[in-house]
Structure formats: structure tokens, C-alpha cells
Design brief:
By secondary structure, the protein is an alpha/beta fold. Helix content is 25%, strand content 29%. The protein binds adenosine-5'-diphosphate (ADP) and magnesium ion. Adenosine-5'-diphosphate is lined by residues 6-8, 11, 32, 34-40, 131.
């Protein structure tokens, strides 16, 4: 499903749509090139869920935890992961198989560790700089 040729101003509405689309699925994978807008979209989604902390990419820790309104959110950035064993070491299962939201940048780094059910969010940068954001589920 194509959500929009998203500009920054449209992200709050897009975040809301993605959350509705996810339903009971709590694991969302964010695909898109470096600079496509994954972290920015996740920030909008966290705001939609009531997070008041500053949302930035967890560059040093791989995973950041935020408190939304009555729900926990884990934000992963696997870009710097060297291998899938590192995800095992950080205890990814504790996060993935909790009731918390998991927003995951660079899921390509953990192809064998993805759960059975997830929502895939893909961000594509158009030549004019706008974004096409598509969502589907596995
Ligand atoms: N929907 C959008 N439309 C236009 N610019 C955007 C959009 N989303 C993000 N950006 C801009 O793109 C840049 C990179 O975004 P970022 O979220 O850090 O990308 P990523 O996490 O995919 O590497 C930022 O400067 C941000 O302001
Ligand atoms: Mg990022």
C-alpha cells in the first residue's frame, strides 16, 4: 500500500496510518537507503505513541528504549552490526518477543532472526526529494 509522496509535514499523518495498519503487530521493519528518512519516520511514530523523550538513532547502543503512553518502544539500528551473532549477544529475543513495539532500521543485517509476523515499511526517495512510503505485512 502506497501511503504518500511524503514530505516532512505529512509524517505525523503517515505515522498514524502506519500504527493503525500494524494493528496487533508490534514489529516494524524500516527499509530505505541511508538518508531516506527511517529515523525521522520512527521519531514521528514515537511522538504519535506519546513519547516525549528525544528520539535519535541509537548509533552507539544499537537499541534505544522509549516510554510511550502506556507502552514501551524499542528502536534498533543494526547498521553497524558486524554479524547476526552480535544481535544474539545483545539479547534481541527479549525485545522482539516482548509486548513492546520494535522499530527496526537495517533489518537486512539480521535476515535469519526476523520473526514470522512483521510490518514492512519501505521509504524511497524520489528525484524531487519527496518520499514514497509503502507498507505491507508478512
Ligand atoms: N519524508 C521526508 N521528506 C523530506 N525529507 C525528509 C523526509 N524524511 C526525512 N527527511 C530528511 O532526510 C534526512 C535523513 O533522514 P534520516 O531519518 O536520518 O534518514 P535514515 O534514518 O533513513 O538514514 C534528514 O535531514 C531529514 O530531515
Ligand atoms: Mg537512521
Amino acid at each position: 500500500m502506497l501511503l504518500s509522496a511524503g514530505s516532512i509535514e505529512q509524517l505525523p499523518a503517515i505515522a498514524s496510518e502506519i500504527i493503525s495498519f500494524a494493528g496487533n503487530t508490534r514489529i516494524l521493519l524500516f527499509y530505505g537507503d541511508m538518508g531516506a528518512g527511517k529515523t525521522t519516520l520512527i521519531k514521528a511514530m514515537c511522538e504519535h505513541l506519546g513519547v516525549t523523550d528525544v528520539v535519535t538513532s541509537p548509533t552507539f547502543s544499537i537499541v534505544n528504549e522509549y516510554a510511550g503512553a502506556g507502552q514501551k518502544i524499542y528502536h534498533f539500528d543494526f547498521y553497524r552490526l558486524k554479524n547476526q551473532a552480535e544481535a544474539l549477544d545483545l539479547g534481541y529475543e527479549e525485545y522482539f518477543y516482548s509486548d513492546a513495539w520494535c522499530f527496526i532500521e537495517w533489518p537486512e543485517k539480521i535476515p535469519d532472526l526476523l520473526p514470522e509476523n512483521y510490518v514492512r515499511v519501505n521509504i524511497q526517495v524520489m528525484p524531487d526529494g519527496s518520499r514514497h512510503i509503502t507498507i505491507d505485512r508478512n
